[in-house]
Structure prediction request, 332 residues.
Amino acid sequence: MGELAASGRRAVGWLMGYLNADGSLGDAKDGFKYYRAPWTFTLYGESPAGHAICGWIRRNLLTADMTLDGPLRLLNDGWAYRDATLIVGAQMLHQHDLSIALMRNLLRWQDPVSGGFANDRLPDGSMSDDMDIPYACGPGFACLLTGRMDQARLVAGFLQRIYDAQAEMPDRFFCFWSRSRQAPIRYGDPDFQPRFVVENQQNRMQRWTIGGIAAAFLCRLYLADPQDRYLALARSYQAFSIAATDDQFFYPSACKSSWGAALLYQITGEPQYLAWLGRFARWYIDSQEPEGFWHPWREERLGDIIEITLEYAMHIATLTGAISSRPAPGAA
Prediction:
């Protein structure tokens, strides 16, 4: 625990070195890569840095109609996910124009039929047809933190719907959903791309994220609304993640599996989740550079490194927090 806590602090120290005098983090020309900064900095007691970044975002990204769409936004992928992650951190800091007020626009991205959220903003400003598990869970966390329980339950419904639609488990999980067809996007569909499926025993870069983030969101929802079905579904998603090939540890996208395991351990106290957290603790420590940062899968600019380091530091705080809660076995 001490070694892991030191790793998290080292990461935050490295990030603080890129906090600019105007409140921005890194190079603004890299686009909206710092959306998790208020969340991560607040977890580590660096709230002044979080407030500084919120101030910069307010001055440079926030529009008169309360959207994050200033000229320095630049990135259209993961549109609702990035907004939602910023909302979580801003709400932690009581920056309500960047949390409560932004929810109105965020909720426009939720599909009322499935409960998912459109992934990307298209060049014409419209929403993509495809939705997926991580980009639904991100807004789900924002809904929870701002008290939008009905919309959070819709996200849980989406996770159940896409899970129930799987026909090749445990080998494959088709993790993208079409809004227009209300079905998973599978092999043979005209819009299918290789990244739309997780082949659980294949050694390649995939969305290893899906099991862990789904379990994490469902656990957070369970804490607010303790329905057994949420916890059961969280277990199922995490089981898919744990059953994947050990080759997943070669890829940064495996990180969210520690998120789900941490919260399942906090709620249940069951040893299999603690054992999985032990593996991830060592993974975070061993893969960190001495300066305090981690490497992303694609490293084209400083913003890419900042983005992954903010996320890993957040996961470390969640992991250590879950273990520190000292859950009793069989707690749930």
